[in-house]
TrEMBL record, chain A:
Residues 7-238 form the ABC transporter domain. Pfam families: ABC_tran, TOBE_2. The complex is composed of two ATP-binding proteins (PotA), two transmembrane proteins (PotB and PotC) and a solute-binding protein (PotD). PANTHER family: SPERMIDINE/PUTRESCINE IMPORT ATP-BINDING PROTEIN POTA, SPERMIDINE_PUTRESCINE IMPORT ATP-BINDING PROTEIN POTA. It comes from the Bacteria. It comes from Bacillus methanolicus PB1. One of its GO terms (cellular component) is ATP-binding cassette (ABC) transporter complex. SUPFAM superfamilies: MOP-like, P-loop containing nucleoside triphosphate hydrolases. This is Spermidine/putrescine import ATP-binding protein PotA. Part of the ABC transporter complex PotABCD involved in spermidine/putrescine import. Responsible for energy coupling to the transport system.
UniProtKB/TrEMBL annotation, chain B:
Its main location: membrane. This is Spermidine/putrescine import ABC transporter permease PotC. InterPro entries: Bact_Polyamine_Transport, MetI-like, MetI-like_sf. Belongs to the binding-protein-dependent transport system permease family. CysTW subfamily. GO terms for cellular component: plasma membrane. Gene3D superfamilies: MetI-like (1.10.3720.10). The chain crosses the membrane at residues 9-31, 57-88, 100-124, 130-153, 174-196, 202-222, 234-253.
Length: 361, 266
């Protein structure tokens, strides 16, 4: 086993009574010092994974390893991980200082040492001078930071964050994304971040696990997952996509919307049925006769950064286009895209098969 | 709208007047030098002086206070434990059953509680007196404490306990450092409620008190039976004022939902 693996899930299943399993035979490894994100819709099992690591619940089957040792039955209060909760779970009867000092007092450190550590930690997140504030006097963003400090002051090897930004407004959320990422780099410890917000995941992570129905659909770096989604679910969940069915004629040639196009994918069977993904920002609006595809504009929505344009081709496929240029609804236009913009997905492929095929490129 | 509020104001005044008039009538005549309740002759403290000269009466006051403090303290401990058990019982059915049993005790008539305690104590041979009064007071105060503490526990976010565990706290730490400090306002409210209930209880005490031991409300009742004396007015006034002080104290604590300075506790 490699040294830099800190947490390993081995065929972990979590099931309550006779309900369908919340987690179904999940395997993954977490490396030291990286920023991980568990991404998925609500009910996909991402928070369950976090609770299994924190020790609030135990697995029904399988083993969880921490630093190479099985920790299935180690209680939460004996684990070297700390959690930042979605609702922060700060203690309202204690002030900021005592909230942060909570874990240190449990460890029975000396008062002087506690004071020093708490002050140092508060300085670390720009909360110097807030020691004597009550929790009720703090704003949402400040509470967020107190919750983070309360966790990291215990010097955990892994910090778990359970959708900690979901209660903040958009601007503050973006700020905190930068801060969290920066914090992780400075501390050098492993962060495991749970979210259903794909933008957050893409912006912050070294590695993303996309979950659905208690299974990991795909794992990889943000660019891997965005550019090479393994299936329809991942393509739809991470960013917006145009997904149409097509046929792989031969290597580097694919057919969809009644035409053949050059692409950069290979390794499929001749004439295999596939799904094609093209991201809306990779589609470029051209005059009708200059585009690779001819479409009619159905509707247009102003989104601030860009226009969201929905068009249909003659086969009835819907095409979503992001463009900074305004168009007229009802017009016929052409769409241009590069061969690299076409991503071909094999139907029902597992992550292992997918990775193997990608290696052959 | 304006008209309605005027009407409701008048209604309120009438209701409160009817409710409070007898009490203030009684208090007013406790300062009457005339000795009757229909003719005010002059202002005097004589009735109060007489009360305080009566050492038997002072002992009764002391009994009443001791019973109230002891029963409130003990029922608070039992009630908090009970409320925690109800709040954290896993099965919904168990929880609802316990809560219903608790609430039945609150609404059941004092006379029935008193009579049943009298039967119980005579059956198992507990001598009627301080112990029997104390036990029965604890018994009817516990459900009140439970009702006062329970909402505070339920309002507590369960992740707070996970957070404490996550920070290394043992189960005992979670209880003593997180749960109990959090529900302290509820505990105080329960204690004060129990105190007032015990202090002014008549029906239950009347049944279970024996020779040589009595509390203020029972004493006032027996004085009133013996004949009209403004002593009773004076005594009632003192009891009323004392209860008022407790109620004010209760509201003061209830209003301070999150007491400051708790942070230094360990």
């Amino acid at each position: 086993m490699k040294d830099n693996i800190i947490i390993r899930f081995e065929h972990v299943t979590k099931q309550y009574d006779n309900d369908p399993p919340v987690l179904n035979d999940v395997c993954f490894e977490i490396e030291r010092g990286k920023f991980y994100t568990l991404l998925g819709p609500s009910g996909c099992g991402k928070t369950t994974i976090l609770r299994l690591i924190a020790g609030f619940i135990g697995p029904s089957q399988g083993n969880i390893y921490f630093n190479g040792k099985i920790i299935n039955h180690v209680p939460a209060n004996k684990r070297q991980v700390n959690t930042v909760f979605q609702d922060y779970a700060l203690f309202p009867h204690l002030n900021v200082f005592e909230n942060v000092a909570f874990g240190l007092r449990i460890k029975k450190l000396k008062n002087a040492e506690i004071t020093e550590k708490v002050k140092e930690a508060l300085r670390f997140v720009n909360l110097k001078g807030y020691e004597n504030r009550e929790i009720s006097e703090m704003s949402g963003g400040q509470r967020q930071r107190v919750a983070i400090v309360r966790a990291i002051v215990n010097e955990p090897e892994v910090l778990l964050l359970d959708e900690p930004l979901s209660a903040l407004d958009l601007k503050l959320r973006t700020e905190m994304q930068y801060e969290l990422r920066e914090l992780q780099r400075r501390l050098g410890i492993t962060f495991i971040f749970v979210t259903h917000d794909q933008e957050e995941a893409l912006a912050m992570s070294d590695e993303i696990f996309v979950l659905n129905n208690g299974k990991i659909e795909q794992s990889g770096t943000p660019t891997d997952i965005y550019d090479e989604p393994i299936n329809r679910f991942v393509a739809n969940f991470i960013g917006e996509s145009n997904i149409v069915s097509g046929k792989m004629i031969k290597d580097y040639v694919v057919e969809f919307a009644g035409k053949t196009f050059d692409c950069v994918d290979k390794g499929f069977n001749p004439n295999e049925t596939v799904e094609i993904v093209i991201r809306p920002e990779d589609l470029e609006i051209t005059p009708k006769d200059q585009g690779k595809l001819q479409v009619r504009i159905d509707s247009q929505l102003f989104r601030g950064v860009h226009y969201e344009i929905i068009c249909y081709d003659q086969d009835g496929n819907e095409w979503l286009v992001h463009s900074t240029r305004k168009v007229k609804v009802g017009d016929e236009i052409g769409l241009h895209f590069d061969p690299e913009a076409i991503h071909v997905m094999r139907l029902g492929e597992t992550e292992e098969e997918f990775d193997k095929r990608l290696e052959n490129y | 709208m304006k008209k309605m509020s005027k009407l409701s104001a008048v209604y309120l005044i009438v209701v409160f007047f009817i409710l409070y008039a007898p009490i203030f009538y009684l208090i007013f005549y406790s300062f009457n030098s005339g000795g009757t309740m229909y003719q005010f002759e002059g202002f005097t403290f004589d009735w109060y002086k007489e009360l305080f000269k009566d050492s038997r009466l002072l002992i009764i006051v002391l009994n009443t206070i001791i019973i109230a403090l002891l029963s409130a303290a003990i029922s608070t401990i039992i009630g908090v434990a009970g409320a925690l058990a109800i709040a954290y019982s896993r099965k919904r059915r168990v929880k609802n059953t316990l809560l219903s049993l608790n609430n039945v005790l609150i609404v059941s008539p004092d006379v029935i509680i008193g009579a049943s305690f009298l039967i119980l104590f005579t059956m198992i041979g507990i001598k009627l007196g301080l112990i029997s009064v104390l036990l029965s007071h604890i018994a009817f105060c516990v459900p009140i404490v439970v009702i006062m503490v329970l909402p505070k526990i339920e309002e507590m976010s369960p992740t707070m306990m996970f957070a404490a565990l996550d920070l290394g706290a043992s189960r005992w730490d979670v209880l003593s450092k997180v749960v109990l400090p959090y529900i302290t306002p509820g505990i105080f409210a329960g204690f004060f409620m129990a105190l007032t209930y015990s202090l002014d209880d008549f029906a239950v005490t009347f049944f279970v008190t024996g020779n040589g031991f009595t509390t203020l409300s029972v004493e006032i009742y027996s004085l009133a039976r013996r004949g009209v004396s403004l002593n009773i007015n004076a005594l009632s006034t003192i009891l009323f004022i004392f209860t008022m002080i407790l109620v004010i104290g209760y509201y003061y604590i209830a209003k301070r939902n999150r007491p400051n300075g708790m942070g230094d506790r360990r």
